[in-house]
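User: My notes are a mess, but here's the protein and xanthine's SMILES. Can you give me a structure?
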Amino acid sequence: MAPRYYTVSWDQLHRDSKALAWRLVEKGPWKGIVAITRGGLIPAAIVARELDCRLIESVSVITYDEEVRGEPQVAKPPVAAGDGDGWLVLDDLVDTGTTLKVVRGLLPKAHFATVYAKPAGNPLVDTYITEVSQDTWILFPWDTEPQFIAPIARSAASK
Ligand SMILES: O=P(O)(O)OC[C@H]1O[C@H](OP(=O)(O)OP(=O)(O)O)[C@H](O)[C@@H]1O
Ligand SMILES: O=c1[nH]c(=O)c2nc[nH]c2[nH]1
Ligand SMILES: [Mg+2]
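Assistant: No problem, the inputs look usable. Here's the predicted complex:
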């Protein structure tokens, strides 16, 4: 079956990340935020602003090449977050849970949050905002740009 796409605009990402911050402020205080790069960087910046948090650490895990999943590679481990106790780990989404499983291994006591979640990865995340189905590919604003689309009448006529 062809995957569905769920397009997220900058506005929507900002709103959903702020909704995440509302949930997380109740669960703090936090020593700092660990952003899972690269996708977690922008949600982490928005949440950090709302939580008034200035201590930002990063961990880099490379799991996908475009839509193809490979073996997760830790390109940069976290250096300042110890075992994660009191720290908040943020990513844009959890899909299969492969990435979060690796980061949970590095920061077992941290709280894990994502803006979006798919069912297979759901058990690996402590707090999230929006769930989408497993066959949905989320299109983030940094991976897309608006483009011309032919009128329906013209594209239907060419079929
Ligand atoms: O739950 P999973 O199946 O592991 O998928 C989720 C991860 O995949 C994407 O990262 P990606 O590997 O594409 O790297 P990027 O954030 O640098 O784009 C996304 O940002 C999550 O980190
Ligand atoms: O941009 C993305 N959208 C997704 O749905 C996804 N799942 C894993 N990695 C992903 N990256
Ligand atoms: Mg990522």
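The longest strand covers residues 56-65.
User: Great, I'll file this with my notes.
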